[in-house]
Amino acid sequence: MGKSQRLYQEAKRIIPGGTQLLSKRPEMFLPEKWPAYYKKAKGVDVWDLDDKKYIDMSLMGVGSCILGYAHNVVNQAVLRAIENGNMTTLNCYEEVELAKKLLKLHPWAEMVRFSRTGGEACAIGIRIGRAFAKKDKVAFCGYHGWHDWYLSANLADNSNLDGQLLPGLEPLGVPRALKRTSLPFHYGQIDELKALVSQNKNEIGVIIMEVCRHKKIDVDFLKAVKTIAKEISAVLVFDEVSSGFRVTTGGMHLLYGVNPDMAIFGKALGNGYPISAIIGTRKVMESAQNTFISSTYWTERIGFVAGLETIKIFEEENVPRHLVQIGGYIRDGLIQIFEKYSLNIEIAGLPSVPILAIKEEEPLVVKTILTQEMLKKGFLASNIIYISLAHTKAIADKYLEAAEDVFGKIARSIKKGDLKKLLKGPVCHAGFKRLT
Fold it and tell me: What is the pTM of this model?
């Protein structure tokens, strides 16, 4: 074990769950061997506690560092903000500037509220939507965070979130009174939403959904959902925490002319600095004043400064075009590898976030071996690749060369029927599990 692995063993004894984010648990990648902690990061390079350098071809800060790690221009703007005071009794003017910028990018919207994370931004959106509609129930499609309103879906059926987030999530600690207040429907299945509306009469006040995540965007579906929302006087919320700024500067919905009542952004907005935003029409957003939504660190300066600088770079360097081009290049390269070795693996996800949908007989074993073998070659790799501005064609070529070697080894082992012999440790986790 290296320093990172030893530290993680200690962390599991004093931090419930080992880490603050399920997606960063080493068990989700390579149990017992994943370099859990970093000392330094720059561009696409990450150094662990033993000073081993890896090229990140996986989550890139769980999709937050869309320009690459420690981007010089963003960092310099943040450092200036720190030197001038990141928090005072007064408000920072940058929050108004960022609000104006987001509204300029999204002409349909008229007002903005800010927070720091995607999950809490979704919770704020739900609160505002319920306040406006004066109806309690929420219909949702996709992953929208960890808060009570969302996890309560599993009070009625502990598999309700299986197709939305992760299998096996227990709603312990969520009040039983919230049972059947959050109702799931699946992407592309408009009949499911129609059934929810029929079954719940006039009780649905908010419909929240991801514009796109794993599947190809379905514009007709989005339009049909919007029509239903209007018919039942429900607030339509597009959760673009993951999709925002991945294919265009702003929300993905802008490309298709389907405007919601509210949209939510996070992750990529601040290139690793915490900032999230809820934008919406004036008539809906004004309802925020009729309820209580307030937090000290939503006024902290760094997130606003980072957001402004990140958007500026997006516009100056046409970042979305680069993300889509590199993502497409890697996608095509992987498809050629899978076809060459007759592997049952498909590519899903956004053009700038290729997702390896492993459909072999033992997908978790394949994923674990992929991560294990790529780590030996100096890559942080998994079944998801968040492309950043720092990913170049040369880096993509280096990754594809290594990936071809690894997938070739996997294919040969599958053919011989001894795939598990390649494993050097436990198989990675697929969902939520207790660690101790």
Answer: 0.95
